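Predict the 3D structure for this chain.
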Amino acid sequence: MLPICKLFGRFHFFIYFCSQNCKTMNGDPKLYTLLEQLNIGFEYMEHPPAPTIEVALQYWAGHDAKHCKNLFFRNHKGNRHYLVILDCNCDMDIHAIEKMLKQGKLSFASELRLEKYLCVQPGSVTPFGLMNDTEHHVTVFLDKNLQKAARLSFHPCVNTASLIITRNDFMRFLDYTGNSYEWIELY
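Done. Predicted structure below.
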């Protein structure tokens, strides 16, 4: 595999069309294998740890992808889990999200729940973790405004890299996982 390299500032972007040698890239190797199986190309950007949007923004300059904020919630009983994906530039408080989702009282899921359902750590929440939710336990809610974006950016299950894929390829990935999802107006 020969990546195409672009230099933006002091960070490198690599465009991959297959993941034959993705062992050197940060992230879950299973993800790169799956993206290859689904024939989903991506741009890879390695950067220092970016556990929050505020930190990550400094590393995302120089490309046109819509960066996403990914929030993982549980309901009051703890028997339902939700991944909410929205534009990283939009601030939503948990009470506003509760009202929009109409799922009752929500709270952020614990580190144990993140590991159990998505196999990720806090600061690395990503829809790519849905590949690990084989029982399709997590319901996904997507910000309707993301439908306007041509390309989206997510962590590859760790916060030391970002992947950029087309929205259409992201939807193919989401369909592949089998998790239910819904486009909603969040603001």
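Residues 1-20 have pLDDT under 50 and may be disordered.
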